Amino acid sequence: MIRVKGLCKEFNDFNGVFRALNNVSFEVRPGEIYGLLGPNGAGKTTCLRILSTVLKPTRGFAEVAGINVMHDAEGVRRNIGFMSCNTGIYDRMTAREMVEYFGRLYGIPEDKLQPRIDEIFDMLQMHEIRDRLGSKMSTGMKQKVSIARTIVHDPPVIIFDEPTSGLDVLVARNVLQAVMALKEQGKCIIFSTHIMREVEKLCDRIAVIHRGQILDEGTLPELADRHNQPDVEELFFDLIQRHDDNLEKSPAHV
Amino acid sequence: MNWKNVKLVFHREVRDQLRDRRTLFMITILPVLLYPMLGLGVVEMMLTFSEQKRTVVVLNADELPTTPAFLDETGIMETWFPGGHDDAARLQIITDLPKDEVSGQESTGRSKRQLSPEKLLENGRALAANFSELQGVTDTEDRQAGLREIQDRLSDSFGKSGIQVLVMVPDGYAESIARLQSQDGVTEAAAESSLPPLQVIRNSADDKSAVAFARVQSALTRWEGALRSHTFAKAALRSDLQYPARLEWVEVARGDEVAANIWSKLFPAMIVIMALTGAFYPAIDLGAGEKERGTMETLLISPARRIELVLGKFLTILMFSIGTALMNLLSMGFTGQHMASAMGANLPGAASLELPGMSSLIWLVILLIPLAALFSALCLALATFAKSTKEGQYYLTPLLMVIMGLTMFCLSPSIEITPLYSVIPVVNVALLLKGLLLSTAQNSQLIGYAVPVLISSIGYSILALWWAIDLYNSEGVLFREAEKFDLRLWLTNITRDKEPVPAAQEAGFCFVIILFLQFVAMKYMKPDLSGSDLEAGRQIMQTTVIQQLTMIACPAIFMGLLLTTSLRATFRLRMPSWSSMAMGVGLAFLAHPISIEVSSFMVDQGFLPPPPMEGLARINELLQSTELSPWLLLTVFAVTPAICEEIAFRGFILAGLARGNRLGMAVIVSSLMFGIIHMIPQQAFNAAMLGLILGLLAVHSRSLFPAIAFHLCNNAIATMHAKNGFGIKADGVFFSKDQGMLRYEMPLLILCGIGIAIMVARMIRDLRQEQEAKRLSRMESFDAPADLPAATAITTDNLTAST
Fold first, then answer.
1. Which of B16, B475, B497 sits opposite A16 (nearest CB)?
2. Å from A70 to nearest chain B CA?
3. Which residues in chain A are closer than 8 Å to B15, comparing Cβ atoms?
4. How many helices (H) and strands (E) does chain B have?
5. Domain count within chain B
C-alpha cells in the first residue's frame, strides 16, 4: 500500500543545503500500523508530507495506494487521509460544515455524503458537537473533528503525524482508539510519534528514524532481539546513541 | 481546472468572512455608521468653530477719520463687511473710545476664560508699546532683520494676550489723511514721515488669528475704497479714474460642476484606498491566517488543486474589496451631500452637492473591478508569503503606503491622464475616473483611454494572480519555518559551500549594486559636452569606458569570483555553434529597424516621454563629427558595452535567475533589469525589448558569445545609423529620411519582423523540447527502481473513486 525506496529530500535555506531525508526506504501493508519513531527534527514530518504530496522529493521513489506521488499527486491525495497535530480546524465553521466541506472537496456525491457523515459522527460519538463552532470546541472535540475530516472519504491509506502531540491523556486515548478502529477496518496506517508507549501499544512494525535516516526497522520483538534491549525506550536510545557516535568517528563528518 | 472546487472554496471563505465580526465591521458598520456620524460631527465642529467670536482690539480709535467712519457704536460698521451683519457678529471689537461708545456685544455671553475688555485693552496697549519700542530700535538698521526679530519677540506675547488682531491707529492719523486730501496730488509729494501707516498685527500661523484677520482685512479694504472715492471726490477727480483697467471676473461654473470638481477629487482617492482596505483584511485572514491556524496543510492535502484554492480565495477577497469600496463610496457620497447642504453658506455653489451622473457611476464600477482584482491578487500573494497574520500586516502596510502615495499624486490638479499614465497601475484607473467625474464635455475623448486602462489593469491583475498561484506551489513559502538567520553560517555558506552558478538572490544583489553605481555615475560622472567636438568626444568616450568597466563588468566579475565555483558556467564561457553566432548577428540586423521605429512610435504616441533633446542633439553632433575616428567610436560604443553589459546581465544575473530552471521568467526579469539600468525611458524600453532576444540567445546557445555578437552588432549599427545612416539613400519604399536621420518604412519592418519571429520561434521550440526531455528524465528518476517487485494495483472502493 505504501512503498518508499531511496527517498531523499533537501531544503535550501540561508544557511545552505539541509538534508532532511537521506535514502529512506520502507513498506507498509494494508491492515497494518507502521510506526515512525524519532526525535524532533528527525525527518518524520518531511517524510509524511512527501507521502501526502504536499512536498516533492528531491530523489527516490514513493508510492501510495499503488500511485507514484510524483506522477499523480491528486490521485494520491484522493486515496489518503492525513492528520497531524498541526492540521487545524476552522474557527468559524461548525463540526458538520467542516466535515461536509472536505467531503465535497473530495468529490463525494451528495447522496453518499450525508449517510457517511452520520456514520462517522456515530463512530466518533460526536453528534452533540455537530453544530458547535470550531472556536467553541475543546481540544478533544477539535481532535475528533480532525479525525472525522481525515476519514470522511474512507481512504485506504491514513497518515497520522504525531496526532497526540500536546494532547492530554484522555484525548490522546480517544485518538489512539480511533486509530485502532481504523486498523480493524483494514486500513493501511502510518503513524509517526516520539512517544514510546504509543508505539508499543499500537504499532505492528516500527522504524526508528534519526537525522533523516532509518536506523532500523521491524516488529518490536525482532528489534529487541537484534539489539539486545529490554524495551522500546532502551532500544531507541541505543540506536540513536550508536548512530551519533558513528557520525562523530567518521572522518566525513564536519 | 475543476470550477466546482473553486465554487466550494469561494462559498466557504465568504461564509467564514461573513461570520467574522471584524470583516463585517470593516465593510458595513464602518461606512454605514461611522462616516455619517463623523461627517455630522465635523460639520457641527466646523460650524461652531466659525461661529465663535474672535477678538479684535483697535487702539487710538479716535484718531480714525470720520468721513467715511470705520467704527460705529457696535464696533466695525456692518457696511464694511462683505457678509454684512453675519460677519460683523463674528468679531468682538474692543476700542479705546470713551466707555459709552464702546460696543456692548461682548458684555453678554462671555465665558469665564475670556478676558474682560479692560484687560484686553491693557494687553493691546502693552503689545503696541512693545512693538513701537522694538521698531524704534531697529528702524535705522536693516528693516527686514528688525521685523523678523519683532515677529519672534512679539508673537510670544501676542499669543498670550487673548487678542486675535490688533489694529494700531497712529497719532494724527485723521489729520494726516486730511492733509493728504488737501494737497495737490499731482505736483506736491508729501514727506513719508508725515503719513504714518495704520498697522495691523496678526499671527497667520494661528488659525483663529487668521480667520479674524481675513474679516478685518476685507472690512479695511472696503473702507479704504470708500476713503479713496472720498479723496477723489475732494480732488474733483472722476471716481471711475480709480479703476482705469476695469477688470471683471466672469464665473461660468454651474452648481453641478462645482460638485463634480469635489467628487473628482474625493471618489478616485476613496475608491483606490477602500478597494485596497477591503482586500487587506480578508487577504491576511485567508492567506497568513490559514497558516497560523494550521488549516493550510489541511486544505493542501485535499484533492483540490492549488490553482482552485487560490481562485476561490481570490474571488472572495475580490468580492469584499469591491463591496467595501462601493459601500464606502455610497456612504461618503450621501454624507458629503449632507455636509455640503449643512455648510452651504460657507461653500458657495456647493449647496446642492449633486451626486455624479449615472454614466460616471457605471464607469466607476467598471473601473473598480480590475483595480480591486489587482489589489486582491497582490494582497493574497503577500499574505500567503507571510507566516502569521502579524507578518502579513508588515508586508501589506508598505503596499498601502505606496498606493496612497500614487493616489496623492493623482489628486494633484495639474496631473491628467496621458498615454503613459494610462498603463501605469492604479494611477491609470484613478486618473481616468478623475477625468470622467470632472467633466462630461470631454468624455468621448477620455473613453478612448478606457481601452489601455482596462487592458493594462486586467493584465496586471492576471500577473499578480499568477504570482499568488506560483507562491501556492512553492514549498518554501507554504512551509516556511521561522528559520534562524545565522550570519556565520550564512557567510560560510556563500564563501565555502559555493555552487557553480550564483543564486537568484545573489543575482538580484548584483543588479542592485549596478543600479546604485549607475545613479552615482549619473550624478557625479557627467561628461562635459560644452567644449570642442574633439574634447567633448574624448570626455564622453572616457566616461563611457570607465562606467562600463568599473560599474557594470567589475561588480559581476567580482561577485562571480567570490560567490561561484565555476566562472565558465556562470558567464557561459562555452564555444557556441556557428549557427548560434550567425543567429546573433542576423537578429541584430533585423532587430535594429524595429527597435528604432517602435520606440519612436511609442514616443510619438505619448507612451514614452521624449528623450532629453539637448543632450541627444549634442551626442548626435559628436557622432557625426569627422574629428572622431569611427573605429574609436565603435570600440567605445559597441565593443565595450557588448562585452561589459553581457558579462553582467546575460552572464552573472541571468545565470542566477535561471538556477531554478525557470528560463522564461529568468529571461524576462533579466531583460527588465537590463532596461532599468538604461535610465532614460526610451533607451530603457529599447534595452528591455532587446534584452529578451539577448536572454533567449544566451539560454538557447548556452554561450555568452552569440549575445555579445548581437549586442556588438546592434550598437555598431546604432552608432553608424546616428553617424551617417550607412550612406543609404531614401527610396521611399524601404527607407526614408526625416531631418537627416535614416528612417525605416513599413515593408522593411514587416520583413524584419517575420525574420525575428522565425528565429525566436525556433529558439523557443528547441528550448521547449529540451525542457520537456529534461522533465521526463527527471520524472523517470522517481519511478520504481527495477529491483522492486511490481506493485499490486489497488482496487480502492473508497467513496471518491466513484467520482
1. B497
2. 7
3. 92-93
4. 31, 8
5. 3
Q: Is A183 on the interface with B (CB under 8 A)?
A: no
pLDDT surpasses 60 at B792: no
Q: Are residues B157 and B173 in the same domain?
A: yes
What confidence score (pLDDT) does residue B107 get?
44
Range of the domain at B349: 3-45+253-478
Nearest-CA distance B305 → chain A (Å): 8
Residues in B closer than 8 angstroms to A106, CB to CB, are 302-303, 799-800
Can you read off the three cell numbers belonging to residue B549? 568597466
Task: Choose among A135, A118, A136, A139: nearest CA to A127.
Answer: A118
Among candidates A175, A148, A173, A171, which has minimal Cα distance to A161? A175
**DSSP-derived secondary structure letter, B135:** H
Give me A156's grid cell: 485506504
Q: Are B20 and A92 inside 8 Å of each other by CB?
A: yes
B664 lies in the same domain as B592: yes
Nearest CA in chain A to B12: A101
Where helices occur in B105-206 by DSSP H, the ranges are 117-138, 143-161, 173-182
Grade residue B154 by pLDDT with cuts at 50, 70 and 90.
Answer: confident
B224 and B314 belong to one structural domain: no
pLDDT in tens, B418-456: 887 888 889 999 999 888 887 666 667 777 888 889 999
A-contacting residues of B 156-175, CB under 8 Å? Answer: none
For the residues B395-416, what does the mean pLDDT come to? 88
| Beta-ladder partners of B92 | B55
What does the pLDDT read at residue B191? 59
Answer whether A54 sits within 8 Å of B297, measured CB to CB.
yes
Residues B803, A107: C-beta atoms closer than 8 Å: yes
Calculate mean pLDDT across residues B487-496: 71
Decide if B780 touches A, using CB distance below 8 A.
Answer: no
Mean pLDDT along residues B58-74 = 87
Asked if B206 and B169 sit in the same domain, the reply is: yes
DSSP states of B564-590 as a string? BS-HHHHTT--PPPHHHHHHHHHHHHH
B window 290-349, beta carbon within 8 A of A: 293-295, 297-298, 300-305
ipTM: 0.91
> Are B640 and B742 members of one domain?
yes
Contact assignment for B803 to A101 by CB distance below 8 Å = no
Sole residue written with cell 531614401: B730
If asked whether residues B57 and B40 sit together in one domain, one would say no
The predicted model gives A87-97 an average pLDDT of: 88
CA dihedral A122, A127, A130, A133 (to 10 degrees): -120
Tell me if chain B has a CB within 8 Å of the CB of A40. Answer: no
CA-CA-CA-CA dihedral for B143, B149, B155, B157, to nearest 10: -110
Same domain, B94 and B200: yes
**Is the pLDDT confidence value at B698 over 70?**
yes
Letter string b/e over residues B153-182, b meaning 16 or more CB atoms within 10 A of that residue's CB: ebeeebeebbbbbbbbbeeebeebbeeebe
Cα atoms in the 13 Å half-sphere on the side-chain side of B76: 30
Q: How many CA atoms lie within 13 A of A33 on its CB side?
A: 25
The CATH number given to A2-249 is 3.40.50.300
> Looking at the structure, do residues B257 and B238 belong to the same domain, yes or no?
no
Q: Which residue of A has its CA nearest to B489?
A: A15
Q: How far is B529 from chain A (nearest CA, A)?
A: 48
Question: Which of B9, B784, B803 lies closest to A61 in CB terms?
Answer: B784
Question: What element of type H or E holds A59?
Answer: strand A59-64
A12 and B476 within 8 Å at the Cβ level: the answer is yes
**Tens digit of pLDDT for each residue in B242-278?**
888 888 888 776 666 777 777 788 888 888 998 998 8
Q: pLDDT digit string (tens) for A195-235? A: 888 888 889 999 999 988 998 888 888 888 888 887 888 88
Q: Kindly determine whether residue A5 and residue B788, on different chains, have CB atoms separated by under 8 Å.
A: yes
